[in-house]
Amino acid sequence: MFNAITSAEIWLQDTIDKPLGIEDLANQVGYSSSQVRRQCRHCFHVPPSAYRKERRLSAPLFYYAYTSQYSANGDTLWLS
């Protein structure tokens, strides 16, 4: 099941901008939706919907933190 959860995590990240549900996720990993919910709670301590929401909200922060910003004179400023 660990490989399935890892696969689910990657799939969720890759489809973060699409309106997909638990059934889509379950079909992707080959388990029932109730099994996916149980395993997600076991591994991530939240249901799949909360995990997806958390990833959606953190995606812009991740992008912002790891891209360069430019000042008015063209110098690159790196965020830490």
Account of the 3D structure:
This protein has 80 residues and is mostly helical. The chain has a single domain (2-77), classed as Homeodomain-like (Arc Repressor Mutant, subunit A, Orthogonal Bundle). The protein is built from 4 helices and 2 strands. It has helices at 2-14, 22-29, 33-44, 48-65, and strands spanning 69-70, 76-77. A hairpin with a 5-residue loop joins strand 1 and strand 2 (76-77). Helix 1 (2-14) packs across helix 2 and helix 2 packs across helix 3. The longest helix is centred in the C-terminal third of the chain and has 18 residues, at 48-65. It is elongated and about 40 Å long. The mean pLDDT is 77.
Task: Give the averaged pLDDT, no decimals.
Answer: 77
| Count of the domains | 1
Which strand order spans the largest sheet, edge to edge or round the barrel?
Answer: 1-2
Q: In whole angstroms, how far apart are the ends?
A: 36 Å
The major pleated sheet works out as: 2 strands, antiparallel
Annotated CATH topology: Arc Repressor Mutant, subunit A
- How many β strands by DSSP? 2
